[in-house]
Amino acid sequence: MFKLVDSLDSKYLCGTDPFCIRISSLYKAYGGTNVCSFYTDTETGSVMALNGSVLIYDGDKISDTDELNMFCSALGADTVLCNDALKFNNTNKSSGYILKLAKLPQLKVTLQVIFNENLKELYSILCDNMQDEISKIPFEYFYTDLSHKVRHNCAETATGFIDNAPVSCAVAPFISKAGAIISSVCTKKSMRHMGLGSAVLYSLAEKLILRDIDNIYLYIDNSKLIEFYSRLGFAVWGKWQEIYLS
């Protein structure tokens, strides 16, 4: 049985699992508002968060996948994001790897990196790299959401500049007491293969570590990137999956 909850247990909010970190971050940023809602599976103890049309599921098992499908339909969720170890009847899905920072190597960064500002420039870099995906998110919504999370210490952004021009970026859109998730590591297409993505990611990870954040994760959808990120101290932790319900 799935149940709406008004608050999450304080012990849960300190969990180090990447799905827990994502939910805990959303709770810190939007708990008590109508932007996100939070649920538990009373049979398994799993915790869920509805963020837009995506239901984030944190748990080792699902009591009833058919019931979960109906629950998502009632909520208006068309996607379930969860650990790839969970089994669904749905075949329409995508998956990828979750990497965890083991040790940040020594790297000399000559790139100018600015944190938590220049969101318009950061957005332009994302558009240059992920035009089909980012075009679905208007800048106004992107700015409102990310700046709100930054103000509540639930997100960090890093934008790299050369000669005052934005060239690369990295975002940690989910930060909790116990960890952070990094995504959207991008470099302008015309400036690739110069180490700019590595530099801005390194700077962001270093800043998170200075905040005493020990568990830093990175989601990727291409196994070819594992070797690239391993040079920056990341190792495979597990896999994620997105189940498409419609």
Report the sheet with the most strands, covering strand number, pairing sense and barrel closure. 12 strands, mixed
CATH H-level homologous superfamily name of the largest domain: Gcn5-related N-acetyltransferase (GNAT)
Unreliable stretches? none
Which radius of gyration do the C-alpha atoms yield? Answer: 18 Å
Per DSSP, the total helix count is 7
Summarize model confidence as the mean pLDDT: 92
What would CATH call the architecture of the largest domain?
Answer: 3-Layer(aba) Sandwich
Strand order of the largest sheet: 1-2-3-4-5-12-6-11-10-9-8-7
The CA-CA distance between the termini, in Å, is 22 Å
**Beta-strand proportion:** 25-35%
Task: Give the domain tally.
Answer: 2
CATH class identity of the largest domain: Alpha Beta
Order of helices and strands: EHEEEHEEEHHHEEEHEHE
Helix content: 25-40%
Predict the CATH topology of the largest domain.
Aminopeptidase
Structural class by sheet pairing and helices: alpha+beta
Tell me what you see in this structure.
With 246 residues, this protein is of the alpha+beta class. The protein folds into 2 domains: 2-96; 100-239, Aminopeptidase, CATH 3.40.630.30. The protein has 7 helices and 12 strands. It has helices at 18-30, 65-75, 119-129, 131-134, 139-151, 196-210, 225-230; strands spanning 2-5, 36-41, 47-51, 54-58, 79-83, 93-101, 112-115, 156-162, 165-175, 179-187, 215-220, 234-244. It has a 12-stranded mixed sheet with strand order 1-2-3-4-5-12-6-11-10-9-8-7, with helices on both faces. Helix 2 (65-75) links the parallel strand 4 and strand 5. The two termini are 22 Å apart. The relative contact order is 0.19. The mean pLDDT is 92.
